[in-house]
Amino acid sequence: MPALRINMRKLKDALRLKFEGGQSHQQIAGALGLSKGVVTKYAGLAVAAGLDWPAISALDEAALERRLLTSSRASQTYAQADFGRLHQELGRKGVTLMLLWEEYCAQVGDEHHADLPLKPWRYSQFCENYRQFAKRLKRSMRQVHRAGEKMFIDYAGPTIALVAGGQEVGRANLFVAAMGVSGYCFCLATPAQTARDWLGATAQALTFYGGVPQLIIPDNPRALVTRADRYEPLLTDSVQDFACHYGCSVLPARAYHPQDKPKVELSVLLVERWILARLRKHQFASVEEVNDAITPLLHWLNQRAFQKLPGSRASVFAQIDAPALMALPLQPWEWAVFKTVRVHIDSHVEFEGHRYSVPNALVGLALELRVTAHAVEVLHRGNRVASHTRCVHKGGFTTVIEHLPERHQHQARWTPERLIAWGARIGVACAATVQKMLQRQPHPEHAYRACLGLLSLSKRYGEARLEAACTMALALGTSKYTHIRDILLNRRDLLQASTTPEWTSPAHAHVRGANYYQ
Known about the structure:
With 518 residues, the chain is of the alpha+beta class. The protein is 45% helix and 15% strand. The strands form four sheets. Strands 3-2-1-4-7 form a five-stranded mixed β-sheet, with helices on both faces. A four-stranded antiparallel β-sheet has the order 8-11-12-13, with no helix packed on it. Strands 9-10-14 form a three-stranded mixed β-sheet, with no helix packed on it. α18 packs across α19.
């Protein structure tokens, strides 16, 4: 354990009693509670430095210490360590003070000079000197973070007014992110602080950094946290989906404990001082204009040199944080909302008035929808069972035939377009007849059976005769199944009678019925 450091004020009193009072070393040691050896040592250092009492009294304690130790041959026998660089090296994974001390000892041995022999500190003195250095740093620098481990996010308190036509039309909120070791800062203006703004800005921050940390640490905004708990905070489904997409974790800080995320608190302070303060006299009409003005100021802030550490935020990020980040996913992140729905008896679930099919075996179960801007995914116990393109048509259906029961699939495959296409394979007149049959009914499904009956006549009479019969029926201005069947049966008298105005009157209904089915 290193020896306790002697108070310079007490040493200054000892030198006063020596040079001004003329007392012996034994008397001075007894009066001040020091050892006789200490008094002798520092009295000798003062003489070696050419100091008398008038010169000593004019110096403050720090200046006196420098003068005494500079003249000391003993102080020149120990090599000084670059604690600023060592503090940054501690941010790398697996780096300890013991390892840094061993490298320091090896470096001192390599730089040994015969005219100025230097030796390294012992491990205990090395650690004590480092701790003394760390205490002189700002409080936000005292935490030891691991490279690429944490990214802190928060919103700044002040906002920027958006003005159009001389009137305020909104406020721009400033999102701030900072890396754990380097403090490399990211800033983005958003229109609000909704969950979509939080996650969208975080996604842009990850793109800005070019990688993903292991932990993302926000505070406890209601937009992200369903239940703020000291031990097990509950995140929203959208946040959990975001973390799953990037392969990281989101760990909210304790409520009302900003010291849990000091890096971003310092970054917010820097953004307010060096970015917001410089934009206070500017007027902006949109959030995009604010971001255009922020970009060069943010670059300058990250390139600005540290006061007590070597390099800048950008250089330390490139050396330490960036290599340790995980790779970004290949697919860009999309905002997703989640909703619990129940499968109806028609094998469909409903979202915003539109219905999407799911496998019929899940009828009656509660499923989870993951909805993005372009897709609707149906999840059952975390597994995707169906996926559809999102449709905003209310009252509509998006159906995959394979999702329906087998007995329903055959009927579901019949659509007006398919019937018309089938008729077109027979001929142009047949397709036109099918189309007229579909248009004549209030709903196309009412004509399905008649169309199927018409098309089935090709099996008995051949496609050529059916096409000719359809051509004749169109010429007569009719598209009824019974009329075309009469043409094929060569019942021209019944066909002629049924197409005259007198024959189609209600008075001949009983005759028509009798003749049609003889």
